[in-house]
């Protein structure tokens, strides 16, 4: 067993790509070796800015021989087939083996030296490396086929044990030599093998293990801050990034002018982190301190004095720029800034950001006035919405787009807005994606929800919904955000109405723009209103919408079906969200299949009640009973009403059975429930309740089943068999209880009421034959089953539930 | 410093050129970079180029940002394998002591939407300050660079601030007789920031943009790519001025950039068309 070392040295690899690159290197290496049947005893990968390395432990010195067998044509096959096979395998006929009338090509592969396998694997790995971005370089780049790598590849070290693995990629030959730290030890160093790699590099100021560099940065940076009486604000992303930018990390503490602390802390932190990759510190009071930690890549001969001075200078310039923006922005009231939004196009088909703000303001106000969002002041909601986007035109957000919202909040606070208003301005983008904090302050909820609904509806109205993997306007994220806001605060939002309202506003804005250009049409509407005796001011938005549609059948840009499509979109997103939250997708489908529900809170309550119910024994049994009833009805092509009694007599085709068996999973050719029931009945035996093992469930039972039904019809039966009567009584009792519970949105209660049907249903199937020869009885019993199915469907469409 | 760089790169085979006499946002716009990055012929050049970035103006109040400043450009085609070492050698030549300063290559992929160009490389940091943009051109004017050129763009003011150890660009010594950078350029920054942001007549700028676009097309029709490219440079600068005046909306912005790019691409294509017979003869293994 021998260890192998591979180092791929290149010009500086972007820090953000190094972790992925290590994983890819390992994956490719394992795959290449697996092709030769080699498995390493252990593997470790390293990345620094200038090298990507892999050490594989305990490799065999040679591969085992392998016997490979390729199946060919039958010996009876035409001559051409055999010839084709010989061509493919490169063998002659006497080299083939015959077995059971089939030709086989058998090749014995002798074992190969592992070094040889490695020599071939390395170029393959380099060429196949999946860098997120790669480039060509140098003389070879005259051709577009030249090697692509993340940055120019400079050297390859490949040592198996103590031996060089000779290989070559794009003119770079493997060797024992690499280089140390760019400035501390720029000269070539010779590596002996996997055993001395890390230590030889360490002697040359390279810590090759990224985890060690990270730990060092973490500890040293923390210690520096603590030494100055401060606390480092931890940031693992920054630790990793700095470790990816250095081979010999040296954290250093610097200071900046305290006067800069007037600038919002987030701005300082952001510019320090994003632009300079510095850590920031907080003081004893928990506020931001005027100190930072940068990570140099060198043990400077003056102890880092010049480096700190330089970095301080850069940060001062950055902060002075930030302060310039901040102070300039503060001089302009947000409502003045908001006016500039009229000049900013939200989307070319959808008007300006000012148009959007107008809609969001109205919608936010509506949400509060209607009591959908409780505990907020409508005027504040409108105010916050009108200021919310104003920071988009400020200098600070222009420089740091990620500060949108946050800066608006600062500026709103500075100009004396009420707390809930500036908070809403600050937080109205939240939640941004899964895992982000979901606002619960009512005013913020109103503005945030209004903003998201408007965004979604606007783009749908403009026929720009997300398609496949493309979601350029992040509508899925906006929708998820809206769902989270609704669910978190239990908002009883009539979604359809809200969506129609936004659509109406989009249309009316466009209509108004139209009016400016097209007076006659307005006059036409006014005329129509006058004739109709309608007071235009008293019109609801929806009525206005209807008028707009009536007056402009020719508006093409806007999609009149947008609200319905958005509802579907919400349903889709909600399903995804619930699935990710661990709810079974079939339960979600079962509730969604009911349709007509646009109250997400109620919908979720139903899903959760159903989830609890099906987990109980009652639920499972009711489901089984339901399925039997539904299958019989389905087979009878039963829809609603007696008219279907004249439908063709049931026939058990294989196709039907395949169809029927679907909900039961993977057992093919299962007999439909009723046939099984009848067959079992005929046999006088036990009736299987579900589709478990059933010796009688053979298609051959069909004739017998038919015969059984025929025989039964001769019996004199009472008008209602006891089990039939019992089921009717149970339904009579359960239906109003379930209905009342549903009315009260007590879905657990509704399901408990339905659970009372379980015993009567089981008894019914045990003793009553649905498919009675007497058409009246048959009809009556089918109707009873349909009634049972309908009762269950008031809670959820159980046919969608698996199991 | 400029003389040292000239000496250094001249000794390494570069032709030393003079600044192009037009306003441009970056040295990369110099035809010696843009047009020479096309095609298979080796090309090594170094030159100073004044740059104008109207939106970077700070009325002379920021110690680090200027709307007019100088870049030192080096272009080496094909990119030599020891380009990083050559570059570090040039830093040493102008007096950067790499044993006491922290030099780093930080990922920065360069892209010029107005030139239809992109490349991979780094911004080179000296103690946290970006002093050089280091790029391997991959495409120019929408065409693959075959072979790839390496481009170095030094921020001369920033480097000088390091070497002279001053905190503000305006404190840089311009000579040994006490004249500072501020003496030479501060008033210029104040006035030009004011003009760029507040005064420039936007109607005549829009008009100028249209005229440069038309003249570029006119030159292209006459198969004069260099002339066409000059008009593209002018249109680009006018667009930058319009941006500084804040009269171009977000949506329009893309459209304007697209138009400048089309001009630059048109000029690059025309240049390629014109030169292809020569290139193909001298470099039979080259293809577009």
UniProtKB/TrEMBL annotation, chain A:
Compartments it resides in: Cytoplasm
Keyword Cytoplasm: yes
Catalytic function, reaction form: tRNA(Gly) + glycine + ATP = glycyl-tRNA(Gly) + AMP + diphosphate
Entries under SUPFAM superfamilies matching the protein: HD-domain/PDEase-like
Organism domain of life: Bacteria
EC number(s) recorded for this UniProt protein: 6.1.1.14
Family per record: Belongs to the class-II aminoacyl-tRNA synthetase family.
Quaternary structure annotation from Swiss-Prot or TrEMBL: Tetramer of two alpha and two beta subunits.
UniProt-recorded name of the protein: Glycine--tRNA ligase beta subunit
The organism of origin for this protein: Sphingomonas spermidinifaciens
Lineage: Bacteria, Pseudomonadati, Pseudomonadota, Alphaproteobacteria, Sphingomonadales
Protein's gene: glyS
UniProtKB/TrEMBL annotation, chain B:
Enzyme nomenclature, EC number: 6.1.1.14
GO biological process: glycyl-tRNA aminoacylation
Family matches, as Pfam families: tRNA-synt_2e (PF02091)
Reactions this protein catalyses: tRNA(Gly) + glycine + ATP = glycyl-tRNA(Gly) + AMP + diphosphate
Entry-linked InterPro entries: aa-tRNA-synth_II/BPL/LPL, Gly-tRNA-synth_heterodimer, Gly-tRNA_ligase_asu
Molecular function terms from GO: ATP binding; glycine-tRNA ligase activity
Main location: cytoplasm
HAMAP family assigned to the protein according to its UniProt record, in alphabetical order: Gly_tRNA_synth_alpha (MF_00254)
Family: Belongs to the class-II aminoacyl-tRNA synthetase family.
Designated name of the protein: Glycine--tRNA ligase alpha subunit
Naturally occurring in which organism (per UniProt): Sphingomonas spermidinifaciens
Taxonomic lineage from the root: Bacteria, Pseudomonadati, Pseudomonadota, Alphaproteobacteria, Sphingomonadales
UniProt gene name: glyQ
